[in-house]
Amino acid sequence: MTTARVAPLVGQEEPLSVTVDSIVVRGNSRFSAEGIQRLAQIRVGEVVNGPGVQESIQRLFATGEFSDVQVRVTPFTPAIFYIDVVERPVVGSYRFEGLDHASDGTVTDTVGLVGGAALDPSKIARARAMILKLLGQEGFPQATVDTALAPDPRGLDQLELTFRVNEGPRLALARVEI
């Protein structure tokens, strides 16, 4: 009797696994290397494969604190893991210029703009859309909103984000004929 051995299809092979010998974190300033390792859930002595590395990258991105995360592994033993991060800048404060017919407090509270948090482009986009919606409801459908980042004037290692609003002319119905 002969036994046939079937080779696994591409994508079915066992992922290459390596044992973590050491971890080097680069690009961090606000977060400690140990904190990033904890978030990534990669530990020295652990056996890690490609999907495990992808999960670690996803966990770091999910914090919202990093705009880029890369994990590199040396191709030889002992395997050195390099975790390269780019931390998002911290917005210390938000300002609104030219917003006269809508409440900046409504925008910050609804969207969740909090000073001291990492810059979140999706929150900025939601705040901009909300300003335009609120102004449209108040009769300013031609409003525009731009944003500007500048160093925080308080001298902190943070940024100040300013929403520059041009409400445009108020449009109203003069009369309705039936």
Provide structural commentary.
- The chain is an alpha/beta fold.
- The chain folds into 2 domains: 17-87, membrane protein fhac (Ubiquitin-like (UB roll)), CATH 3.10.20.310; 90-166, Ubiquitin-like (UB roll) (Roll).
- It has helices spanning 33-40, 50-62, 104-111, 121-137, and strands at 17-26, 47-49, 66-73, 79-87, 90-97, 117-118, 144-151, 159-166.
- A 4-stranded mixed beta sheet has the order 2-1-4-3. A 4-stranded mixed beta sheet has the order 6-5-8-7, with helices on one face.
- Strand 3 (66-73) and strand 4 form a beta hairpin.
- Helix 3 (104-111) crosses helix 4.
- It starts with 16 loop residues before the first strand and ends in a 12-residue tail after the last strand.
- The model has no long low-confidence stretch (mean pLDDT 89).
Number of domains: 2
First-residue to last-residue Cα separation? 94 Å
What share of residues are in beta strands?
25-35%
Structural class: alpha/beta
CATH topology of the largest domain: Ubiquitin-like (UB roll)
What's the total count of β strands?
A: 8
- C-alpha-based Rg, rounded: 25 Å
In round numbers, the mean pLDDT is 89
Largest sheet: 4 strands, mixed
Helix and strand element order: EHEHEEEHEHEE
- CATH-level-4 superfamily name of the largest domain: membrane protein fhac
Total helices: the number is 4
Overall geometry: elongated
CATH architecture heading of the largest domain: Roll
**If strands are numbered along the chain, what order do they take across the biggest sheet?**
2-1-4-3
Low-confidence stretches: none
CATH level-1 class of the largest domain: Alpha Beta
Q: Helix content range of the residues, please?
A: 25-40%
